[in-house]
Design goal:
223 residues, alpha/beta, Rossmann fold, 6-stranded mixed beta sheet, 10 strands, membrane, MacB-like_ATP-bd, P-loop_NTPase
Length: 223
């Protein structure tokens, strides 16, 4: 299968006073189309830093990041925005839903930004949310939804534009254990059904075992 993501020699260091802290020390990672990979590591190991880099959300990195065949280092700001919009989906520990929009509207909006028609965007939002068990909650705002329901909306939003790669940073970390199990199972089922690849950061070994492959951050490199 072709690589959706190819990371080579990725480095990231931060200045802290007079000291330089190397968080990523030459990360190499390849993810094939449709593959779901768990990224394990304790808090502070650099999981979020790696996801920030792969998501083209901040600079200061050395090395190569190729997403769906495009080299990030060769992209200007507009190019990075286009790749984030067209090829990537994001799910965070906290849902970050727009509070003044209902569940369906939160999933419709990224499609409209990409240029989809309103009717098609609404139909896809309805299909995704229904697949996640929220067909009866389409017109509810985030404040009217439980934590698990809010995260399901965030999952649907991440998949709205049919991304090649979904990046998830502790996507169930803000949920109780039972709800986390259910939401992750639905997340994985939907990602596989959509044919997207995924890189999912977690510290939970049991949840990681449900994915296709596990990589671990250790002393700034993946093992």
């Amino acid at each position: 299968m072709p690589d959706v993501l190819a990371v080579t020699g990725l480095r990231r260091a931060f200045r802290q006073g007079d000291a330089t802290i190397e968080v990523l020390r030459g990360v190499n990672l390849r993810i094939s189309a449709g593959e779901i990979v768990a990224l394990l590591g304790p808090s502070g190991s650099g999981k979020s830093t790696l996801l920030q880099a792969v998501g083209l959300l901040e600079g200061g990195f050395e090395g190569s990041i190729r997403i769906a065949g495009e080299e990030a280092a060769k992209l200007d700001n507009d190019g990075r925005t286009r790749v984030r919009r067209d090829a990537l989906g994001f799910v965070y520990q906290f849902h970050h839903l727009l509070p003044d929009f209902d569940a369906a509207e939160n999933v419709v909006l990224p499609q409209l930004i990409r240029g989809a028609g309103a009717a098609d965007a609404r139909a896809r939002a309805t299909r995704l949310l229904t697949a996640l068990g929220l067909g009866h909650r389409l017109t509810h705002r985030p404040s009217q939804l439980s934590g698990g329901e809010q995260q399901r909306v965030a999952v649907a939003r991440a998949l709205a534009n049919r991304p090649a790669l979904v990046l998830a940073d502790e996507p169930t970390g803000n949920l109780d254990e039972a709800t986390a199990e259910v939401v992750l199972a639905e997340f994985l089922r939907l990602v596989r059904g959509e044919g997207s690849a995924a890189l999912i950061a977690t510290h939970n070994e049991r949840l990681a075992a449900k994915m296709d492959r596990v990589v671990r951050l250790s002393e700034g490199v993946l093992v």
